[in-house]
Structure to design on (414 residues):
């Protein structure tokens, strides 16, 4: 069987990961032979540890409390999960500063959480299923004790930066066995963002790609701007696995890494001469902005495209600044303006892409991981007690993949 360069490099990365896991397993076995340290004092029933904040601001607003009430299953389709690992994303840093509060609070009030604070952040997790709502069928493939991965919708007040989280069954699935906890916690939020940008906003796989886990888009050409970050690095791998021709931009020091992810051509965005090369491959079916460039950037590009999809939409910020009605008008006006410019100058549409917690999106990502076509990059990893440091890492920027937080007393295996 002939392997492409990309497959060889992914295989090498996985071999290294497997070896390091084997060493870790050997070390754990050795530890198991020695007397174990005294177990921590038992916590009162229905209490848990978690990070909350009571007013918007910087990471010093984050407070750890080990006497939080365990989240309750309120709807019959919900499940309670004991979190083993979670992540911090740029959205967590922004939400801590109050980003999106106007619209998100309205959505929270509708779902019964009428008080704004305290809030717990954390959009994704891997953990252990400990309780199922009455409506989650007994014959459901997810059994209690099962290792699951999942996402928390952005409007929830109780995210995954806690020992337990409650989410609806559709936001959960069995975690892929070939990923460890840190890796499994690092796929879904960025992965569902990339997937929904490409397959829902961008309609890359047509109606089937948008409504099922089928993916698609073979032989199309996509430029991923920001291929070194959490969203971009997963977008490149999922596109490459679908037979899409992928071009990517990143800083010089990430070029080799991004090429290994499967990009056919990688360009250093800090080098104007290299950026010029992107015009040679135009027109692009999709330009995917994972680099925070925003809608206005579309008309500044010196090549044509059919669609420019940015994950940096002004939607929530405009509503924060101007309220629901004026903010909504401002959004319509900005989207129209950037489309008029992009259509007249570059012949393509501008769209806004969003994280969307769809069950078929999770299934799409799960299949890719299980076929070993998708592996998250991990930028850095922190203990749960150090969660504010993970926020600081995000604020420094120049991320190379995901910032993971591992809960101290997490268990392995299922
Ligand atoms: N709308 C939504 O629902 C949603 C969901 C998730 C993420 N997002 C947004 O999507 C963007 C990507 O998220 P993420 O989690 O992947 O962020 P990230 O991990 O910080 O990745 C951004 C990457 O882009 C690189 N970069 C910065 N400027 C660049 C440029 N001009 N050209 C090419 N690459 C550049 C950065 O590295 P260097 O600075 O070293 O080059 C970094 O590796 C962020 O703006 C985030 O806020 C939106």
């Amino acid at each position: 069987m002939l392997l492409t360069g990309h497959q060889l490099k992914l295989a090498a990365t996985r071999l290294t990961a497997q070896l390091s896991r084997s060493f870790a397993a050997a070390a754990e076995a050795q530890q198991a032979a020695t007397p174990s340290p005294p177990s921590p004092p038992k916590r009162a029933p229905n209490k848990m540890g978690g990070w909350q904040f009571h007013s918007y601001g910087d990471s010093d607003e984050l407070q750890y409390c080990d006497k939080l009430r365990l989240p309750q299953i309120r709807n019959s389709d919900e499940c309670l999960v004991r979190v083993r690992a979670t992540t911090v994303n740029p959205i967590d840093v922004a939400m801590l500063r109050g980003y999106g509060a106007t619209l998100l609070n309205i959505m929270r009030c509708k779902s019964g959480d009428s008080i704004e604070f305290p809030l717990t952040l954390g959009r994704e997790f891997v953990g252990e299923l400990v309780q199922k709502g009455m409506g989650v069928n007994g014959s459901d493939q997810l059994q209690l004790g099962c290792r699951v991965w999942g996402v928390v919708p952005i409007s929830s007040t109780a995210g995954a930066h806690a020992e337990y989280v409650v989410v609806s069954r559709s936001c959960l699935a069995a975690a892929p066995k070939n990923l460890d906890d840190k890796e499994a916690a690092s796929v879904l939020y960025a992965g569902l963002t990339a997937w929904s940008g490409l397959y829902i906003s961008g309609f890359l796989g047509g109606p089937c790609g948008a409504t099922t886990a089928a993916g698609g888009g073979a032989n199309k050409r996509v430029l991923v701007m920001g291929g070194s970050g959490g969203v971009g690095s997963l977008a490149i791998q999922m596109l490459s696995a679908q037979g899409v021709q992928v071009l990517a931009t990143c800083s010089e020091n990430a070029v080799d890494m991004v090429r290994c992810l499967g990009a056919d051509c990688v360009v250093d965005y800090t080098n104007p001469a290299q950026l010029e090369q992107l015009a040679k491959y135009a027109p692009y079916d999709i330009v995917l902005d994972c680099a925070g460039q925003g809608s206005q950037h579309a008309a500044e590009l010196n090549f044509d495209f059919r669609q420019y999809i940015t994950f940096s939409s002004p939607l929530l910020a405009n509503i924060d600044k101007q309220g629901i009605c004026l903010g909504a008008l401002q959004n319509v006006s900005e989207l129209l303006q950037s489309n008029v410019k992009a259509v007249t100058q570059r012949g393509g549409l501008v769209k806004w892409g969003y994280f969307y917690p769809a069950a078929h999106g999770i299934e799409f990502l799960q299949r890719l991981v299980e076929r070993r076509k998708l592996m998250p990059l991990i930028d850095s990893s922190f203990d749960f007690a150090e969660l504010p440091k993970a926020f600081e890492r995000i604020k420094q920027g120049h991320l190379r993949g995901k910032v993971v937080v591992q809960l101290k007393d997490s268990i392995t295996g299922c």
